Fold this sequence. Notes:
Helices cover 23% and strands 28% of the residues. The protein has two helices and six strands. The protein has a six-stranded mixed β-sheet. It comes from Croceicoccus ponticola. This is RidA family protein.
Amino acid sequence: xxxxxxxxxxxxxxxxxxxxxxxxxxxxxxxxxxxxxxxxxxxxxxxxxxxxxxxxxxxxxxxxxxxxxxxxxxxxxxxxxxxxxxxxxxxxxxxxxxxxxxxxxxxxxxxxxxxxxxxxxxxxxxxxxxxx
Length: 132
């Protein structure tokens, strides 16, 4: 049976609840939902939507990097966006952060998020060494 290994992200804020920023299990890394919390623990919820997206994407990429992965390893991304009208702005920043990687993705419009944030992003990534 495969073990569940927490991903420790150096120089990042500790999760605010009883969870890990990410875990590795059976060749897959699961990145918990990331808000735009800065590495020092301060919030960006009072900043414009675009800055919140950049901060949340940075956090996703930091968890992936701590697992030795990058955008090209992401299998699926899930984004929770307050206000469907924010979808185009999210999409542009997401595309910039992901580069050539185009994993499966879902964008879920939601009425509100924790701490007043407008975006939360989670991801699932392949960390196996084999080439399918």
